[in-house]
Structure formats: structure tokens, C-alpha cells
TrEMBL record:
<feature type="domain" description="FAD dependent oxidoreductase">
    <location>
        <begin position="7"/>
        <end position="368"/>
    </location>
</feature>
<dbReference type="GO" id="GO:0016491">
    <property type="term" value="F:oxidoreductase activity"/>
</dbReference>
<dbReference type="Pfam" id="PF01266">
    <property type="entry name" value="DAO"/>
</dbReference>
<protein>
    <submittedName>
        <fullName>FAD-binding oxidoreductase</fullName>
    </submittedName>
</protein>
<dbReference type="InterPro" id="IPR006076">
    <property type="entry name" value="FAD-dep_OxRdtase"/>
</dbReference>
<dbReference type="GO" id="GO:0005737">
    <property type="term" value="C:cytoplasm"/>
</dbReference>
<keyword id="KW-0560">Oxidoreductase</keyword>
<dbReference type="InterPro" id="IPR036188">
    <property type="entry name" value="FAD/NAD-bd_sf"/>
</dbReference>
Length: 397
């Protein structure tokens, strides 16, 4: 058992491993604690899309652009196993109301440098011939990309290990101990690890680790149900989202007032085809606590919605379903900040469905902040203090 470390990272998903990777690049050798195996939480229960064109103009898109640039570097560094590819992405539009909303959304994105285009019905079907006839058009971004989320998580961990990081798997962090206003150690199911720096990257489970310290994080688990089909010849290039997916992502109250199962479950299309030929189809967005079970209602809604957009999927067999918990925050942005009043305690969580897209820039920014470097992107707006009901440490743990 490891008794002491330069830094402890809690969470073995893509965020925790990206932080570990970039910390080792800066000479810090962390210990990563994961209660299960690597990539068994949200990082192993998500799609493969790195979509820039779904990000809100402003800081959200700025982070995504910076992360996309890092992905190209990681592609060379980590190798072909991560299955990175720039195959483009589109957000399909079904009616004039959606067209107007997405046209405004795309115009604001173009103002800060995103090369996103509005395609009409004919142009859309030229890019994706399998789309249904009722699709009016889409926003299209040729530089949207994809990656294998499990493989990149494992490759980041492999490289971090080579650079000196240590891993404790099947080890649960049960408490964070503090003394005199500074972090002291992490208590685990296998003993305590003393460390002057602790980074909470536990995703949807991040708030629970802070409860005893009197610190509240406004992070809620938001379930996403997805489907995997049998392998088929290439039908889809790149990734497809629906305008309804964007609406569900940024307007969670829609589900509360919905009068149909699709709205109530926050169903929006996310569709891609893996290199193996299997389709990965999503998704729901549900606030149901920490329940990770796939449901008959959710499976049916996601499947029917997908067929509505791509009729050829009606004859494809499902082989697996799964669900992951995305760490949702009220403003849709992650929390990257020191816990005020507890020296040495940092939180990096709350990415919701953008963990894969934002993982590289998150890892780099956290590494820069905790080692005293100037961060590549100003993270002030990602602080805990932006939520009025939290921020200060109440007691030593």
C-alpha cells in the first residue's frame, strides 16, 4: 500500500487520467485512486463524438477548441489505438423553428472562429445519404472529430504510468482529511495516503467526498442511456446529433414539462458508427439519482427516435444497452477550482456530457493551475464561487 504521494487524484475516468498525464509532463508523479477499473464510469458509457458545433459560444466553445488542438497532439503521442479521426459532425434540423434557432447558434459560433456551415436539405443528404426525407437541413462542421473513449482513457493512464504515476484500482476513497485549513490525507478502503495536493475528479460522485468537509458542489448525476448494434457495412460518416439533443442538453426543464416520452426522458439523437461497424446510438438525459440501469422505456425511446432520423436502422439488431451518469452542473460548465479555505484541495468535475471533448484541456489546465503556471485558458469563470450557495470550507475533516 502507498502511504504518501506528491498528489492524489480521485477518479480513474478520462478526466482523472488526463490530469495524471499532464501532471507527469510537469514532473509531478500522482497517485490515482479508482474504486473500480479505469473507464468503468461515464468514460466507458458514452459515445465517441468530439463535437465542437454543439458547444455554446463563449467559454464553453473556447475550451472545446483548445481541447481539439490538444487531441491532435495526443493522436501523435498516444498512437492509433485511441482511434482519433476528423470525420465531421452535423446537427440535423427537422422544422423551421429549429432552423432559426440553429442558424442563430451557428452565427454566434462563427463569430469566434468556428467554421460551422448551414446546409440545406440536398446538401445535408449529400453528406449523409441515409438520413430521412423529412430532414430540412443541418449545421455542419468538417473538423468535428471522434475518439474511442475507453481506449484513450487507458492510453492516458499507460503514458502517465510510464512517466511515474501510480494507480490504486479497486480502492475507494472514503474521506478527505484536513488539518488547520489544509489537506492532510485521503482515507481509502486500503488505508490512508498523505498528500499535500488532492484533486477530486470523481465526476458525478465528486460531491459525496466533500460532504464531511461542509462543502457543497452543485453536481447532479444525469443518466444517459445508449444502445450498441451489430456490425454493419459503413452507413454513417462522422457523427450526427439532432437539434432536439441540443435542446435537451441545455434546457433540462423541458423534461419536467414534457407531455411525451421523448421529452420526459430528454431523448435526443446522437449517432455514430464505430470502426468495427457497430452503431452507437443515444441518448436520454434523465435525473434519476445514481440509477445506472437501462430501462425498457428508455431503450425503446432511443431506438425509435434513431429510426425516425435514419430509417435503415430499423432492420439492425441491438446487441447491448448501457447507461452512464454524467456530472451535471446548472450552467453546463465544469468546476475547475481550489476549494476555498482548504489549502491543497482542488476539484475538477461537472463536465456532464462533455467529458470526452474537454478532457485534454481539463488535464492541461488543472496541471498548470496546481503547479503554479499561468493557465492556457482563464479558469476564473469555472470557479466554485460562481454558484451562490457554495464555496467556503466549514470544518476540518
Amino acid at each position: 500500500m502507498i502511504n504518501a504521494a506528491e498528489a492524489v487524484i480521485i477518479g480513474g475516468g478520462i478526466i482523472g487520467n488526463s490530469i495524471a498525464y499532464f501532471l507527469t509532463q510537469s514532473g509531478v508523479k500522482p497517485v490515482v485512486i479508482e474504486r473500480n477499473d479505469l473507464a468503468t464510469g461515464a468514460s466507458g458509457a458514452c459515445d465517441k463524438a468530439i463535437i465542437l458545433s454543439s458547444k455554446n459560444p463563449g467559454l464553453h466553445l473556447q475550451l472545446a477548441l483548445a481541447s481539439a488542438a490538444l487531441y491532435q497532439e495526443l493522436d501523435s503521442e498516444l498512437g492509433p489505438e485511441i482511434e482519433y479521426a476528423k470525420d465531421g459532425g452535423m446537427i440535423v434540423i427537422e422544422n423551421s423553428e429549429q432552423w432559426e434557432a440553429m442558424e442563430n447558434f451557428a452565427a454566434r459560433q462563427r463569430q469566434i472562429g468556428l467554421n460551422v456551415k448551414m446546409l440545406d436539405k440536398k446538401e445535408t443528404r449529400e453528406v449523409q445519404p441515409a438520413l430521412a426525407e423529412h430532414i430540412l437541413g443541418c449545421t455542419y462542421h468538417p473538423d468535428d472529430a471522434e475518439v474511442n473513449p475507453i481506449n484513450i482513457t487507458l492510453q492516458l493512464a499507460k503514458k502517465a504510468r510510464q512517466n511515474g504515476a501510480q494507480y490504486l484500482l479497486h480502492t475507494e476513497a472514503t474521506a478527505i482529511k484536513t488539518d488547520g485549513g489544509r489537506v492532510k490525507s485521503v482515507v481509502t478502503s486500503r488505508g490512508s495516503i498523505a498528500a499535500p495536493l488532492v484533486i477530486n475528479a470523481a465526476g458525478a460522485w465528486a460531491p459525496g467526498l466533500f460532504t464531511r468537509l461542509g462543502v457543497s458542489l452543485p453536481i447532479r448525476p444525469r443518466k444517459g442511456q445508449l444502445l450498441i448494434t451489430e456490425a454493419k457495412p459503413r452507413l454513417i460518416r462522422g457523427d450526427i446529433l439532432s437539434a432536439g439533443y441540443i435542446a435537451a442538453k441545455y434546457n433540462p426543464t423541458l423534461a419536467e414539462n414534457g407531455d411525451d416520452v421523448y421529452t420526459q426522458l430528454g431523448v435526443g439523437l446522437s449517432l455514430g458508427q464505430m470502426r468495427s461497424g457497430n452503431f452507437i446510438i443515444g441518448a436520454t438525459r434523465e435525473f434519476v439519482g445514481y440509477d445506472t440501469r437501462s430501462t425498457p422505456q428508455g431503450i425503446a425511446a432511443v431506438a425509435r427516435n434513431a429510426v425516425r432520423f435514419v430509417p435503415a436502422l430499423a432492420g439492425v439488431n441491438l446487441i447491448r444497452t448501457f447507461a452512464g451518469l454524467r456530472p451535471y452542473t446548472p450552467d453546463g460548465l465544469p468546476i475547475l477550482d481550489w476549494v476555498h479555505g482548504i489549502e491543497g484541495l482542488f476539484v475538477a468535475a461537472g463536465h456532464e456530457g462533455d467529458g470526452i471533448a474537454l478532457a485534454p484541456i481539463t488535464g492541461k489546465l488543472v496541471s498548470q493551475v496546481v503547479t503554479g503556471e499561468k493557465p492556457q485558458v482563464d479558469v476564473t469563470a469555472l470557479g466554485i464561487g460562481r454558484f451562490s450557495d457554495i464555496g467556503n470550507k466549514v470544518k476540518d475533516g
